[in-house]
Prior knowledge:
Blueprint: H1 6-15, E1 24-32, H2 39-42, H3 54-57, H4 59-70, E2 78-81, E3 87-88, E4 94-103, E5 109-116, E6 125-129, E7 133-136, E8 147-153, E9 170-175, H5 180-198, H6 205-225, E10 231-232
Parallel strand pairs: 1-5
Antiparallel strand pairs: 1-6, 2-4, 2-10, 3-4, 4-5, 6-7, 7-8, 8-9
Helix pairs in contact: 4-6
Protein name: GFO/IDH/MocA-like oxidoreductase domain-containing protein
Domain GFO/IDH/MocA-like oxidoreductase: 18-134
Family: Belongs to the Gfo/Idh/MocA family.
Amino acid sequence: MWLHHPRTMKMKELLFDFNHVGQVDFIHSTSTAKMPPEFFENNIRVKQDMDALGVLGDLGWYCVGAVLWAKNYRLPNVVSALPAGVTKNSAGIVLSCTACLNYDQDHKTVAIIHCSFFSYTSMDLSITGTKGSLHLKDFVIPYQEGSAFFDLASPATFMDDQTGWNVKTEKVVVDNETPQEALMVQELARLAQGIKKCGFPPDNRWPEISRKTQIVVDAIKKSIDLDCKPVYL
C-alpha cells in the first residue's frame, strides 16, 4: 500500500532527478515488530505448513520491495544472508534476518535489509547517492494518515572546521487526503474497470513488481538454507 502514497511518488520524483540524490550507492531498509509470546506459538507466520517464509514473507517483503523500488525494479546480481542476523524457530522458520543485496550493473549499489519479529517497531528507509540522501522512518505506514514527510539532504558537506553541516536537511512534507490503503483499492478498481468496460489489456506493472520481489525474497531464503552462501541472480 505504501507504493500508492503520494509521498512515495514525490520521493521517486526526487530520487530520479539526478541533481538531488545522484547515483544511488547505498540503501538501508528495515521492517521490524516485537511480537508477544503467543505469536510465536499460534501465528500462521511461524508454522511450516502455513507460511514457511516466516518474517521474510511478511516484514521482509517490504524491505526487499523498497530496495527494488529505489533501483527502479532492477534485480541485484548477488544476494547473501548474513549469518549473525538469522534466527529460526525449532521448525526452521526464519524469525529474524539480515541480508545484503549487491548491484554491479552500471553503477555499483549495496543494499542492506533487516526484518525481525523480535525488535521494536521500525520502518526505516535510507537511500544515499553521490549527491545527496533521502531518509524516512515510517515508509510502510506513515506516522499520520493525512500527512507524511521525509528528509532530503542535497547537496550536503561538512563546514570547513568540520563542526557541522553546511546545509540543513530539508523536511519534505506531503499531504494526503485519502489513506494509502484506499488509494491502493482505487487503483485496483480502476484497472478492473478498464479491462471490463474499456477493453484495456491487464497492466503488467504490478504483477512484475510482485514477481521480482518474490524472486529476491526466495533468493534470501535460499542463501539462508545454504548456510548464508551467496545466491546469484
